[in-house]
Task: structure prediction
Amino acid sequence: MAATGVRWGRRLGPVAFGVAVGIALTVILMAWPQRTLVQREDQPSTLRYRDGFTHHLGLYRERTLFGESYHLVIGSDPSLSYGHRVEIGAGGSLGVRATDWTSAGVRVRFTTGHELFVPAALFISGR
Result:
């Protein structure tokens, strides 16, 4: 009888370890990558682009196992799931101070003092 119990104990250890590793990996993979909308700006109602849509700008923070990055998405999709994507540096971490929408495009001013201009041709007509 004792020999059977010892065999089960030897088998149960690796199985329990495998289950624990599997649970840990599942938790890690579900937590990353993490994409968070930090700030949203909408085109003013007084401005119309040639495609006739209202455009939106979103500042996103993305956390992965390899670090943190920021990017803008500009487009006509209100959910910001599709649009022109612009990778930005750590300057995005403090947020957008102001946006200036013109017929030529949108100028984004960050709280760090950096500015970025995105021509309208890059985000109108479904881009």
Q: What stands out?
A: The mean pLDDT is 87.
